[in-house]
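Deliverable D5.2: sample structural annotation.
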Amino acid sequence: MYEWQVLVKDINELKSQGVIVEKIGRSVLGRDIVAVHKGDMQGEQILLQAAVHGREWLTSRLAVDLLKEYDGDMGVWCVPMSNPDGCMLAMKGLDSVADRHIRELLVRLNPNGKFDMWKANARGVDINVNFNANWGSGVHNVFEPAGENYVGLFPESEVETQALVKLTKRVMPLLTVSLHAKGEVVYHGWQGFCPYESKAQKIADFLGYELRESRGSVGGYKDWFVATTHKLGVTIEIGKDEWDIRRLDEHYEEILGQNKGLLKLLEDIAWDIQNKKNT
C-alpha cells in the first residue's frame, strides 16, 4: 500500500534533491495536500494530479515515480494525492480517522465497516463530481453523502476541490493529466468539445490504451479544466479492467512500464502546442 506517510517520506526525499514542495491545502481531517514542482518555474507548465478517488491510491505512487524519472526542461506541477483522507480510508479504514464526529458520520454512511472501495473524501463527497462543470447533472450523481458520486452541497464545496482549483488557476498549465484507475483508457474532451484530439491520441498510442471521448462526464477535474480553459486535459485510467482495484498494486510493475516516459511525452506535446500558438 502507498499510505500518506509513505508519500510524505518520498516527497521529503524529492525536496532534499532540490524539488520545490508546496502545501496547497489541508484535507477535511487536516492532512496536507501537497504540490511538487520539477523543471523550469518560468514559462508554460504541465499539471499532473492523482488519487482524487480514495480507492485509486496507487495512482499516487505512479505520479511520484513519474516525477522522479522526469529530467526535462518544462515545468511540471504534480499533486500526487489529491484526496488523502479518502486514500487512507480505502487502505486503513476507520483506523485512519481520529475525529469522533467524522467517524460517526462514516459509520452511518458505511455501516458494514469496509472502506476498500471508498472513492469520496471524509465527508462523503466525491471530489471528481464536485467541480463546476455542469455540476450535479450527471446520470450517476447522488445528492446525499455516500462512498461515491455525491456531488456536495455546491460546486467546489470541498477543501480538496478548492486546493486543485486554486493551484490550477495560479499555474495556468498548458495541459493537465489526471491519473485514475482502471480500464486502460484515455478520456479526452468534454460535452462534445475535444481540443487537441490528435495530441490526446498520441498519449493513448504511447500507453497502448484506448482513446475515448468523455461525452457523459460532468463535474470532474478534467471536465472543469477543458470547459473553462479550452486547453488539453485528459484522464488516464491505469490498470486492466478485469483486475481487482483493491489489489492493483500486484500489477504495479506492468503499469509503471506502460507509463514510463509519460512526462517527457507530455513535455514534447506541450512544446508543440506552444510553438504552434506562437507562429
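Annotation notes: The chain has a mean pLDDT of 95. The first strand starts at residue 20 and ends at 26.
The annotation will be released with the project's public dataset once the embargo ends.
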